[in-house]
Amino acid sequence: MNNCCSTNNESKIADLAIIGGGSAAFAAAIKAGELGARVTMINAGLPIGGTCVNVGCVPSKTLIRAAETNHRANHHNFHGIETQGRITDFGKIIGQKTALVEQLRQAKYLDVIADQKGVRIIDGQATLFARDKVEVNGESIQADRILIATGATTNVPPVPGLAESGYLTNETAFELEQLPESLIVLGGRYIALELAQMFSRLGSRVTVLQRSPRILPTETEDLTSKLTGYLAEEGIEVVIGVTLSEISRKNNGVLVKAIINGAPKEFRASQILIATGRKPNTSGMGLEKAGLILDPRGFLVVDDVLQSNVAGIYGAGDVVGEPMFVYTAAYEGALAAENAILGSSKKRDYTALPWVIFTDPQVAGAGFDKQQALAQGIDAEAATLNLEHVPRSLAARDTRGFIKLIRDRATDRLVGARILAPEGSERWPGLFRQLFSIYKW
Q1: What pLDDT, on the 0 to 100 scale, is given for residue 81?
Q2: Which of 197, 242, 257, 335 has the fewest CB atoms within 10 Å around its CB?
């Protein structure tokens, strides 16, 4: 195996079996092809392209923009301009979304992989029999290395009556033919908040029920409290500290019984959407029989080079747990393929990982926040600039939010940043320059 990927004609060309068909799998297939390996990609579940193009990034972001268009037409801060927006055909909005998904699935996935030599795609459920053997559709496939990149799906909480009542997830909400009159969203992290605001701006009456004491519980209270307030100003009801008791379907709607601060309370809506975290797609593939270790939540355990406890079997993307972003999945897929094919030991590194939550205002970050930095033993200091002091925000007449930089006092080095701002993911460079000039960092 030491020379499995040598380009020498006398050396054996490596065979890489990839289980999965999303961003991690595609990045791995492309990298493996560049390294001269033969690739068999085995995909089941979602169509080729996985979560991002089918039921995640692409449909959610285009519908978020559609909702924003409607919202801005009815809510802006400029005098002398009268505009009005209304949803006249919800089905056409969904149809345009579907067309975009199909277009990008073809252009960004199928067409790309078609240009890769030595890549074969099989539709079917893979079963792992050994460290070098996968079976699919009755065919046995031998591989020098195996990569598991099967992604994750919605984690549905075990609430009495939920399964019988019916519910939406990110996989089904984008396929609705009619806009719900009202919607209860279970969860308070990024998927829940993005979809809650999207449906609200399209015209649904939305209630968010969050178990934790605040939304986005891994972020600081100053950020989450402001975002909660902005959502409330748009008419979204955010309820925290919720313990669900029972869910049932009553009179063509959903009834949610819960306990809040020790007191029972009921919530009613036309539909309920589940966004209570993600669970890995690791069942039904024989992973345990192959000796692979899964964590208590079922995620595949891998080391810093993305190899599992079984030599030659690697994992990448959402199936190995946080961070669950399309760009980290692609990064991990390429890295895992390189380590698998070349036998190298390049470690994954998320130190400077940028991320964004597409609410409005957006939440974006990189590196540590102050509490995380202090927990790492860093003598951290945070500086915050409210957008009411930023000329661009004043000119846009939208001063919601702030930008915060975190530095190490000892080295005067920036170790992290957080931003809550309209189009915050696009506005970092200018805002950073302003903070640098103010705080001389």
Answers
A1: 95
A2: 257
Interatomic CA distance for residues 354 and 426, integer angstroms: 12
Cα–Cα distance, 300 to 396 (Å, whole number): 46
Place of tokens 């008419």: 235
Handedness of CA 316, 318, 321, 326 (dihedral sign): positive
109 DSSP 8-state letter: I
Give the pLDDT band (50/70/90) at residue 6: very low
Name the one residue in this structure whose structure tokens are 């990298």. Answer: 31
Express each pLDDT in 68-84 by its tens digit. Answer: 999 999 999 999 999 99
Q: How far is CA 219 from CA 19, 148, 223, 369, in A?
A: 34, 30, 7, 8
307 pairs with which residues across the strands?
Answer: 314
Pairing of strands 362-367, 354-357: antiparallel
What is the three-class DSSP state of 228?
helix
Least confident of 103-107, 415-419, 436-440: 436-440
Smallest Cα–Cα separation from 274: which of 373, 178, 170?
A: 170
For the record, the structure tokens of 337 come out as 């393929």
User: In angstroms, rounded to a whole number, what is the distance separating the alpha carbons of residues 195 and 308?
Assistant: 34
Tokens for 310?
A: 């079984």
What CATH superfamily is the domain 162-276? FAD/NAD(P)-binding domain (3.50.50.60)
Expressed in angstroms, the distance from the first to the final Cα of the chain is 50
What is the distance between the alpha carbons of residues 143 and 135, in angstroms, rounded to a whole number?
11
% of the chain residues with pLDDT over 70? 93
Q: Closest Cα to residue 215, out of 239, 188, 242, 243?
A: 188
| Runs of H (alpha helix) within 177-299 | 190-202, 221-233
CATH of domain 15-154+279-342: 3.50.50.60
The strands making up 205-209's β-sheet, listed across from edge to edge, are 237-239, 205-209, 182-186, 271-274
Q: How confident is the model at residue 437 (pLDDT cuts 50, 70, 90)?
A: very low
Encode burial over 63-82: b for 16+ CB neighbours within 10 A, e otherwise: bbebbbebbeeeeeeeeeee
Adjacent-strand bridge partners of 257: 246, 266
What are the structure tokens assigned to 42, written together? 């085995």
Instruction: Give the start-end residues of each E strand in 131-241.
Output: 133-136, 139-142, 145-148, 152-154, 182-186, 205-209, 237-239
Task: Fold for 361-439, please state it.
Answer: Enolase-like; domain 1 (3.30.390)
Q: Enumerate residues 6+ apart whose C-beta is below 8 A from 303.
A: none
- Quick check: 439 and 395 in contact, CB under 8 A? no
Residue 250: band (very low, low, confident or very high) from pLDDT cuts 50, 70, 90: confident
